[in-house]
Write a structure and sequence with these properties.
By secondary structure, the chain is α/β, with parallel strands linked by helices. The chain is built from ten helices and ten strands.
Length: 329
């Protein structure tokens, strides 16, 4: 039989179902005032119409923010293409509880524009959640908006996730971030690679995002009881290869954490091989690229990379699934 208001009240307070049979012990029995019971029943009667933003009986509206990029393989177009493809797959399989997913992609050419897009998504109240936004360099603004508008933000792609202990009620970071990757690499080197004294250097482009990374490296070096690391910062895209190698070789560096591009690291290694300086090289996933295959043979077995998640072909069964996804889209 169907429940009536009185029968729901009886089930909640005494644990009897609509036919008078005792409900399982896992169903709590609540002591409630009559006024509270009336309020509960009133809410249950209107709950179908009390929908979250971006949610209708037919659809779930999602949004994302990606950097504007001209090249087809730039990060923004790639993220947008993957999300659109996945949404299409879900919808073709019937959606989520018969609701279709609708995706709005906002492209941002600047940091300010990214914040403007996030603000508009939050204030308009037409989005159920923001999925996989690329939030590098706008983390604080994005977090503030997410908290202020109670707007869920799932899996932001960033190198600088918030690392403090505050509870994040509406935002979930998928990736561990550059600082954590650096610490993991150094911890791995200390336990598995190094023999004898360690002379550590960090080479990185001059960017604000590198400040917490260098600090994390210093902390990890101190934990490992290594000497203070040598830090070499260079203007983005203009690394002085010869001078940098001369400085690092003179400092007798044996362990190099490189945070630049694959092409810059390869150029550094080529100069190192020419001058007979071949340290162990540690690199985060952001530095991985095809130019690493041009590394000189003197560095064979000396290059180690950290990834926040395993590349798809390395996960059992996922390689074929990913290949099929790419073929469909």
């Amino acid at each position: 039989s169907a429940y009536t208001g009185d029968l729901i009240a009886r089930a909640v307070t005494t644990g009897l179902n609509v036919n008078g049979a005792t409900l399982d012990a896992t169903m709590p029995r609540f002591e409630m005032h009559q006024e509270d019971l009336r309020d509960l029943l009133s809410y249950l009667r209107r709950i179908e119409q009390d929908l979250d933003p971006g949610l209708t009986a037919q659809s779930i509206a999602l949004g994302t923010i990606v950097p504007k990029g001209g090249a087809p393989d730039a990060l923004g177009p790639v993220v947008a293409a993957v999300l659109k493809g996945y949404v299409q797959d879900v919808n073709e399989q019937g959606g989520i509880y018969s609701r279709r997913l609708e995706l709005t992609v906002k492209e941002a050419a600047t940091r300010e524009q990214a914040v403007e897009h996030a603000t508009a998504l939050a204030e308009q109240g037409e989005i159920f959640a923001v999925v996989s936004p690329v939030t590098t360099r706008v983390e604080q603004e994005i977090e503030r908006l997410s908290d202020a508008y109670a707007m869920p933000m799932i899996g932001p792609l960033t190198e600088s996730p918030r690392s403090d202990e505050r509870i994040q009620r509406h935002i979930f970071y998928l990736l561990s971030g550059l600082a954590t990757e650096a610490k993991v690499l150094l911890s791995f080197a200390g336990s598995s690679l190094t023999q004898g004294p360690v002379k550590l250097a960090v080479v990185h482009p001059k960017q604000d995002a590198m400040v917490p990374v260098v600090e994390a490296v210093r902390q990890q070096a101190q934990t490992s009881q290594w000497p203070e690391p040598v830090v070499v910062a260079y203007d983005t895209g203009a690394m002085p290869v010869v001078d940098a190698v001369a400085q690092l070789k003179s400092a007798q560096i044996t362990l190099l954490l490189f945070l630049g591009s694959d092409a810059e690291c390869t150029a550094l290694a080529q100069e190192g091989a020419r001058t007979q300086w071949t340290p162990t090289v540690l690199m985060p996933s952001r530095s991985a690229g095809p130019k690493l295959f041009d590394m000189p043979t003197e560095f064979a077995g000396r290059i180690f990379l950290a990834f926040s998640n395993m590349p798809a072909p390395s996960v059992s069964g996922k390689g074929a699934e990913f290949a099929a996804f790419r073929a469909r889209h």
